[in-house]
Amino acid sequence: MYIGLGILIILVLYLIAQYNGFIILKTRIHEALSGIDVQLKRRADLIPNLVETVKGYAKHEKEVFTQVTKARTALMNAGSLEEKARANDMLINALKSLFAVAEAYPQLQASENFRDLQRQLEDTEDKVAYSRQFYNTNVLDFNTKVEMFPTNLIANIFGFKKFDFFIANEKEREKVELKF
Amino acid sequence: MSPYSLISKNKNKTLFIMLVFVIIFTGFFYLIGKYFNAGNSYLIMGLIISTLSTVGSYFYSDKIVLLTTGAKPANRKKHYDFYTTAENLSIASGLPMPKLYVINSPSMNAFATGRDPKHAVICVTTGLLEKLDRSDIEGVIAHELAHIKNYDILLSSIIAVLVGSIVIISDWFLRSFYWRSNSNNRGRNPVLGVLVILALIITPVLATLIQLAISRKREYLADASGVLITRNPNGLADALEKISQHSKLDNISPAVSHLFISNPLNSNKKNANWFLNLFSTHPPIEERIKILKSM
C-alpha cells in the first residue's frame, strides 16, 4: 500500500515538473515572439525616414518607393507568423532594390544622414535575424518535448501543440552585409 | 551535460570555494596567532576578515576586477561594432544586455565578469576592436556570453578576488615574518615556526590548484556554446588565431588572468613571484582552434 502511494506521489510530482517545464518554454516562446515584433517595428519606423531621404535625391524613382511603402504596410498589418515572415521577405527585397537605386546617386551615397540610416537599418535587420533565431531555438526545444517520449504523453494530456518556426529566406543574412 | 546542471554546479562550487576560503584563511590566521601566542584573537580576526571579504567579493567582484584592470565604460557611437554585436547576441541567446567596458590597449583580449546574467560585464581591449572584423568580434562576444549564461563568471570572478587577497595577505605576512625573525626570535616554539612557513607555502599553492581545477574545461565549453549562438565557428577560430599573436596585457594581476579569453600574462618571461608562474589556466589556443575548425 505505502509503496503504491509512494509511486503515485512520485508520478504526480513528475507530472507537475514536466507541466511546468512546458509552461516555462511556452512563456519563453511568447517572449521571443514579442522580441521579434519589437525589432520589426523598430525597422518599420526607420523606413519612412529612409524613403524621405532617398526621395530628396532621387525624386523620380517612384516605383521603388511605392514598393517599399507597400511592403512596410503589409508587415505592419501582418497578423500570423506566416504573414509576418512573408511580409518580411517582401520588405527585404523592396529595400534591396531601394539600395540598388541609391547606388546611382553619388550625392545620396555621400550624405551623412543616408549612411546613418543605412547603418541603423543594417543593425535592426541583424536584430530581426537574431531574435528570430532565439525564437526558433525555443520552438525547437518545445517541439522536441512535445514529440519525445515520455513528455509527449504529458503534452497530449494538457493539449500542448507544436509551434511554427519563423522561416525566412536564407539569403537574408547575406544581404545584410552591406559594405561601405 | 544540460546547461541547467552546469549552472547549479557552478553555484555549488562557488559556495564551496567561499567556505574553503574562510576555513583556510581563519586557520592560517590561527597558526600565525599561535606563533605570537595570541591564537584566539587572531582566529576571530581571521574569521571576521575572511567572511567579510567573501561576502564582499560576491557582490563587488565585478567592480574590483574592472578596477584592477583599469577598464572604462564603452560608448555606443565610439565602439559601434562592440555595442551592436553584444546587443544582437544577447537577443539571440535570450540574455539581458550586459554592461560593456573597454581597456585602452593595443593588445587583443577580452573577459567577462559579474555574479549573474543580470549583473554581468563584458570587457574587451580597444586593440581587439580595431584589429578584428565584425564576425571575429561576434565570436569573442558569444564566447563571453556563454561564460555569463553558464555562471562561469560568478565562480571565476570570486576566485579572482579571493586568490588576489590571498596573494596580498601571504605577501604581507611573509614580509613581516622575515622582519620579525631577524629582530627577535627567542622563546618561540620552533615547531610552530615551521608550521607557519608550511602554511605560508601551502596556501598559495592550494589557491593555485583551485584555480587550475576550474578553468580549462570551461574554455572549451564556452567556445562550443558560443558557436551555438553565432552559428559560425570560423569567426571565433579566426579571432583566437589573431588574439593569440598579441594577447599580452600590461599591469594585469595574475589573480584575474584566468578570466581572459587568452592568457594576458607573458608566458615566456619568469615572474618575480615564483608561484605566480603556476597560474597557467588557459588551454592551448591551437587546440581550441583545431576543435572549432572541425565543427
The helix tally of chain B amounts to: 9
How many domains of chain A? The number is: 1
What does the average pLDDT of chain A come to? 86
Q: Structural class of the secondary structure composition of chain B?
A: alpha+beta
Main sheet overview of chain A: none
Percent in strands of chain A: under 5%
The N- to C-terminal Cα distance of chain A equals 76 Å
Indicate the overall shape of chain A: rod-shaped
Number of helices of chain A: 7
| Strand count of chain A | 0
**Cross-sheet strand order for the largest sheet of chain B:** 1-2-4-3
Question: Which whole number gives the mean pLDDT of chain B?
Answer: 82
Rg of chain A, rounded, reads 23 Å
Return the CATH class of chain A. Mainly Alpha
Largest interface: A-B, 14 and 10 residues
What order do the helices and strands of chain A follow?
Answer: HHHHHHH
Q: Work out the oligomeric state of the chains in this entry.
A: heterodimer
- Helical proportion of chain A, percent range: over 70%
Cα-atom radius of gyration of chain B: 21 Å
**Shape, per Cα inertia axes of chain B:** elongated
Topology of this structure?
The complex is a heterodimer of chains A (180) and B (295).
Chain A: H1 2-57, H2 62-77, H3 81-102, H4 106-110, H5 112-147, H6 151-158, H7 171-176
Chain B: H1 3-35, H2 39-69, E1 72-73, H3 80-93, E2 99-103, E3 110-114, E4 120-125, H4 126-131, H5 134-149, H6 152-183, H7 190-230, H8 233-245, H9 285-293
Helix pairs in contact in B: 1-2, 1-6, 1-7, 2-6, 3-5, 5-7, 5-8, 6-7, 8-9
